[in-house]
Fold this protein.
Amino acid sequence: MNRSAFTGSVRTSITLGAALASTVLCATASVAVPGDAGGVTATPSVARVSAERACPVVYFDLGETLVHTAEDGGTSYQAGAASYLRALRERHIRIGLITNVPSSWGATDAERAARLKKEVDATWRGSEPFVWKDFGDRIFTPRTEAERKPAPALWQRAKAESGRCRVVYQAETAEEVHAAASLGYVAYQVARPHRPAFLPVRLIEVLGGRSR
C-alpha cells in the first residue's frame, strides 16, 4: 500500500507529558476533517462521552501498518509494532483488525481470518511470531468484494461489535484514516514524520476513560 499525505488527523502532540494533557483537555474524540491539514477537534456531548469511555477498542489495518512485506515477499512486524502491541496487551486494551482480504477466502470472518493467518505465517520472517491470539475474534474482513475498504461496511461492523466502547482505528493511508474518522472512530495515520509511530497508549487510555 502506498503512503500518501494526510489531509486530516487526530490532534495529538509529538511530545508527551504536558502536551498530552493539553491534547486530552481539548479533544476526547479528535477526528479527521477533509481539507484540514492540522486536524479538527470534535467534542461530543458529555452523555455520549460517558457512554463511550468505558472501554477503548483499538483496531488496525494489517499490511504496512502492523506487518511489513519485503521485496522478497517475506513478512515481519512493521517497525515498532511488536512493542506497541505488547504495551496495549499489558494495559488490557482490546485490539482488532479491519483488513481487506479476498471474500472468497471463506464464508465467515472466522474462516477468512484463518486463511489470513495461514498466508501471513507462511511468509513470516520475524524474530517473534505475530500475536494473532491478542486479536481474538475481532478480525473483520469483507464478506463480499463490495465491502472492501474504503467502503464503510467493515468499520460499521467492527463498531457495532464493540458496543458502547470508544473505537480507535490506525492505518498507514490517509484515505482509510479519513473514512474511519467519518464513521466515529478516533483515527490516526501511523508512521508519519515528526509524530509518534502509533497513537500513544497513554492517550488511548485517557480517551477510554482509563486514566489513573
Residues 18-207 form a domain with the Rossmann fold fold (CATH 3.40.50.1000).
